[in-house]
Sequence to fold (341 residues):
Amino acid sequence: PSDVVSVAQKILHALRWPFMLEGETCHLTASIGVSLYPNDGADFANLLKNADIATYRAKEQGKNNYLFYSGEMNDHLSARIAKETRLQGALERNEFILHYEPKVEINTGRITGMEALIRWQHPELGLLPPLEFIGHAEDSGLIVPIGAWVLRIGCAYNQTLQSRVAAPLTVSVNLSARQFEDKHLLREIERALSESALKPNCLELEITESMVMRDTQSSKKILDGIKSMGIRLAIDDFGTGYSSLASIKRFPFDCIKIDRSFIKDIPQDPDDVAITQAIIAMAHSLRLKVIAEGVETQEQLDFLTEHGCHEFQGYFFRRPQPAEEFSKLLRDNAGAIAATA
Fold:
């Protein structure tokens, strides 16, 4: 086994380095599964099957690593296959629902919008968060119809709320990498807006920086097309990838969302403090709105207020809510704002 570990580590190390392909800088990672003769199989077919199982398990645990096969992985794989099989028809069976996480204006406490977050009401496993099924949906291509459903339901719900608030509410919807590259994306966005009668400026699409930087020319064309419809664009999880604000400014974004990983240890961690301050300052210079994700404490909120962050999301205000509870929250928030006016 020690020799196998050495080989696996060498492979992972060799693939760490970027390389050029047709003028573009490319990055690769590997997931390695290992099975050993005779414990994990007495013939080539079984050894290969079990190494493959270990590879899938390595991918699930974050990729860019190696794992040795164990018998417990078969149980895990069987459960995963059952879940994936069920996922195939979950959309037709109306097993998905949306929860809404409020976005709050820091200076006033007013709810300005919400992020639509999908949940799966699994008949046996209960309410599952995206982490439990989005990866497979992405790999299988199911994310495209699921994502289109999220767009339609999120827009329709937001339209029902518009008459209840003094200022327009914005619903934010995350686009997956597969959706972003899908040739029918603009058509699906138009359909969601048309069916709901929602004004385009009340829809915001969130795109991660890694998606944008994968093919900058193609990304700019897609984003320009979305922007021409009057839709708002936000760059999600900013600061976790390779890009900088200087490279982002070529795209028509309206908003930057600071990733929760930078928020969770402020104001104690000096590095996170410096990074968050820099992102806010540079976003201001580019006239972009700044939203902080994952705010959980008063200290974090005070820091963000002091440094000019515009809006925040997080459990400090409220967890993501089912539609009925979010509607009540919105009423209560509007009443509280009116009472202090």
